[in-house]
Amino acid sequence: MNPARLLQQLKEHFGDRIQDAVLALGEVTLEVVPEQLLAVCTELRDAPAFRFEQLIDLCGIDYLGYGMDEWATEETTSTGFSRGVEPVTAGRLPGLEEDLSVETPQKERRFAAVYHLLSVALNQRLRLRVFAPEGDLPVLPSVVDIWNGANWFEREAFDLFGIIFEGHPDLRRILTDYGFIGHPFRKDFPLSGNVEVRYDPEKQRVVYQPVSIEPRVLVPKVIRAGAVPPDPVSTPAADEEGGDGGSTPDKAGAAEDAS
What we know:
- By secondary structure, the protein is an alpha/beta fold.
- The protein has a domain at 3-64 and 106-166: NADH:ubiquinone oxidoreductase Nqo5 subunit (Beta Polymerase, domain 2), CATH 3.30.460.
- Helix content is 22%, strand content 21%.
- A 5-stranded mixed sheet has the order 1-2-5-4-3. Strands 6-7 form a two-stranded parallel sheet.
- The chain is extended.
- 16% of the residues are buried.
């Protein structure tokens, strides 16, 4: 189906139950509130006009610092290398915020789940997005009862982003270790992590301890303008190898034959 036609059908069918519906780069993106998620997903699966019987992907997104760049570049409007850039931040290096004298702005709508749907019967795709309500924990309803394939997808989003999916039958970590602290795909998670592992010979097992890596910013090596690499013939290594002025035994023998 034509994406523009699908967009029109979605708007007519759901009306004010959807927050936003846009067509960009040939794909339709539908945004709903958490309270409408299960009802909308059920209709997207069962309605004859849509028939999105397959959930091909589900992922979490952290919009903290969205639109900001870690490089100190100039702001522009819509073109050039620095398009969409805002002032530099401390990134995910704990302890450097004061050194850079900047703060990462807090997003009102930070965590979202994105669902990619496929209708094999009608040969059409749809992207569905829902933001978690603001609170101490991002919580969204589980869609496992609608698409069974969401089981491990939601576990992955919980593990990496800390999104709680209410109604999930087995919401456990799926990628990180059992003793892992935090959620590594969150934008405020330190790049060096919180804990590290080592083998304790006394306990005869692997133990956790606070991370010992010190956060630092690496400065790239600067090549000076006009710098010329040394001539390999005049280097000490070449002098030692070649003897007098870099001559070789073959050249010395040729000189004797000529004389």
